[in-house]
Design a protein that fits this description.
CATH class of the largest domain: Mainly Beta
CATH topology of the largest domain: Immunoglobulin-like
Radius of gyration: 47 Å
Bound molecules: 2-acetamido-2-deoxy-beta-D-glucopyranose
Structural class: alpha+beta
Largest sheet: 6 strands, mixed
Number of strands: 18
Strand order of the largest sheet: 1-9-8-3-4-5
Number of domains: 3
CATH architecture of the largest domain: Sandwich
Distance between the termini: 112 Å
CATH superfamily of the largest domain: Immunoglobulins
Strand content: 25-35%
Order of helices and strands: HEEEEEEEEEEEEEEEEEEHHH
């Protein structure tokens, strides 16, 4: 008989608990770190009970009181020091604002509404709020930790993102060359600040970069939903110059000097040939007469002079021309 009674008592207790569990409204809410969180009570005063007869309070999962509204006004007496000065009440819809939300503020909250009438305290309404706290990670950023050297095409990169919550799911590098994209997953280094509870995360990658292609590297961070994926600005690693800078400069200098020089020399050779050809041909009549008229000289001298006078101007003109060509080519070679 006794054992039967106690079983009945237990099942009644269970029934009441389940009833209460289903009878209490509950909701989930989300707040951002260092901002304001909202703890709505969803109480509608359908019985038009005057504020002077209402007792409304919020408590956390450790039963510490955040705020108490006692018969028409705020009652700070029962409020836990952790919440002093951090709350404010919106009386229109019975929503408590929790300011400067911290990571440790996540958890379950309860709001109770009682009617303090002649017959004592009567429970009117209860609300459970499950508050989760998020902090947006900063945009991931790629940094070069070791560069390519002359004999190695390996670069080491680190990507980091800071001050987020909760711990992200994964972090990765994307390498894009001309028409291919490769994902590199690496193990996340996770650091949690033990005061704020926020995470800093980073990944590192040692990558062999093809020296003749441009590479673009992106870093992505996949946080827990509902936070969305974050991407770093692209980090561009340019193709290596095909030749070391000094020898690469020399051909340019050589060309700008050598080409006009060659043209100039060619011009001179051309002029000399022209002179020779003219020597073989009979000279212009006026030149010969002029020289003859000057007087008696040796045939050798006469021939030399006779040929030089008209041709010196020809030759000079020719050289000037080839100089002009050479200098115009030089200025062309500069641009
Ligand atoms: C919190 O926000 C204030 C401005 O609203 C800002 O000055 C402060 O740096 C923030 N603190 C953290 C830890 O983000
Ligand atoms: C409550 O008061 C409003 C006006 O303030 C009135 O319209 C409504 O009928 C009242 N309800 C009850 C249940 O007394
Ligand atoms: C309560 O009312 C305020 C404006 O008075 C509004 O900003 C807030 O969203 C409301 N909260 C709820 C839970 O309805
Ligand atoms: C966090 O990021 C989301 C978008 O992902 C944005 O809607 C929200 O306003 C951000 N919150 C803060 C506090 O920066
Ligand atoms: C890395 O080396 C390349 C040449 O290979 C150079 O252009 C670049 O400026 C270097 N970057 C850093 C951060 O030293
Ligand atoms: C985490 O990131 C913040 C912001 O970039 C920085 O101030 C802090 O020193 C970082 N902490 C660690 C341990 O790296
Ligand atoms: C990239 O595309 C070009 C043509 O657009 C193709 O010839 C080449 O094979 C491709 N390279 C890779 C790595 O897919
Ligand atoms: C680059 O990273 C690799 C792999 O983590 C490491 O073995 C190497 O020493 C690093 N190089 C430099 C110059 O730090
Ligand atoms: C790399 O990028 C630079 C600048 O965008 C471009 O001038 C160059 O042609 C590219 N080189 C290759 C090999 O794609």
């Amino acid at each position: 008989m006794g054992s039967c009674d106690s079983t009945m008592g237990l099942s009644t207790t269970l029934f009441v608990m389940v009833f209460l569990f289903f009878g209490v409204a509950s909701m989930k809410n989300l707040a951002y770190f260092n901002e304001t969180g909202y703890l709505p009570c969803h109480f509608t005063n359908s019985q038009n009970i005057s504020l002077g007869e209402l007792v409304v309070f919020w408590q956390n999962q450790d039963k510490l009181v955040l705020y108490e509204f006692y018969r028409g006004k705020e009652n700070p007496e029962n409020v836990d020091p952790d919440y002093k000065g951090r709350t404010s009440l919106d009386k229109d819809n019975w929503t408590l604002r929790l300011h400067n939300v911290q990571i440790k503020d996540k958890g379950l909250y309860q709001c109770f509404v009682h009617h303090k009438g002649a017959s004592g305290l009567v429970s009117l309404h209860q609300m459970n709020i499950d508050l989760s706290v998020l902090a947006n990670f900063s945009q991931p950023e790629i940094m070069l930790t070791s560069n390519r050297t002359g004999n190695s095409d390996v670069v080491n990169l680190t990507c980091s993102s800071a001050q987020g919550y909760p711990e992200p799911k994964k972090m990765f590098f994307w390498q894009t060359t001309m028409n291919s994209t490769r994902e590199h997953d690496s193990v996340m280094n996770i650091f949690q600040n033990n005061v704020t509870g926020l995470y800093n995360v980073s990944i590192s990658l040692s990558l062999s970069i093809s020296p003749e292609k441009n590479a673009s590297i992106l870093c992505g961070l996949q946080p827990e939903p509902p936070q969305t994926q974050l991407l770093s600005p692209p980090y561009i690693i340019g193709a290596k110059p095909t030749e070391p800078p000094l020898p690469a400069l020399e051909p340019v200098v050589t060309a700008s000097v050598l080409i006009p020089l060659i043209i100039f020399l060619c011009g001179i050779v051309f002029c000399v040939r022209l002179k020779k050809r003219k020597k073989q041909q009979p000279g212009p009549a006026h030149g010969r007469e002029a020289i003859k008229a000057e007087g008696e000289e040796s045939k050798q001298t006469e021939e030399r002079v006779e040929n030089r006078v008209p041709e010196r101007s020809d030759e000079a003109q020719c050289v000037v021309n080839s100089l002009k060509m050479a200098s115009s080519d030089r200025s062309a070679a500069h641009f």
